[in-house]
Amino acid sequence: IVSNEDNCFINETVIIPDVILTADAGADQSLCDMQTQLAGSSNVGTVSWEASPQFTFTNPNSGNTSVQATSPGTYIITCVATLDDCIDTDELSVTFAYPPEITVNTI
């Protein structure tokens, strides 16, 4: 119960969860490729991914999914853990680069 200077009272119920929701996006990555496998996790709840539109996810609503970039560069991809009304996020930095071209000359 809380009161202010005018002696108005408010009775609020606060629910404290048994566990603290934690998102884990995994380790940062630097690749010579334009796609990678993501392995996001959470101690409870569900996991999804958020990123800018230049990415295509196989399944953005799964912790374990692949993602493909449309252009090389370093990007932040966000792992989102959700349980009821609680949300936690963790960011992953991924550097995408085109694989090197290999030319074979025959003699």
Describe the structure.
The structure is a single chain. This protein is an all-beta fold. The protein is built from no helices and eleven strands. A four-stranded mixed β-sheet has the order 4-11-10-7, with no helix packed on it. A three-stranded antiparallel β-sheet has the order 5-9-8, with no helix packed on it. A two-stranded antiparallel ribbon has the order 1-2. Strand 8 and strand 9 (64-69) form a beta hairpin. It starts with a strand and ends in an 11-residue tail after the last strand. The mean pLDDT is 89.
Can you summarize this structure?
The protein is mostly beta strands.
Output the radius of gyration.
22 Å
What's the order of the H and E elements? EEEEEEEEEEE
| Terminal CA distance | 88 Å
Low-confidence stretches: none
Largest sheet: 4 strands, mixed
Approximately how much helix is present in the residues? Answer: under 10%
Please state the structural category.
Answer: mainly beta
Name the strands of the widest sheet in spatial order: 4-11-10-7
Give me the number of helical elements. Answer: 0
Please state roughly what percent of the residues sit in beta strands, choosing from under 5%, 5-15%, 15-25%, 25-35%, 35-45% or over 45%.
over 45%
Mean pLDDT: 89
Q: What general form does the structure show? A: elongated
Quaternary state reads single chain
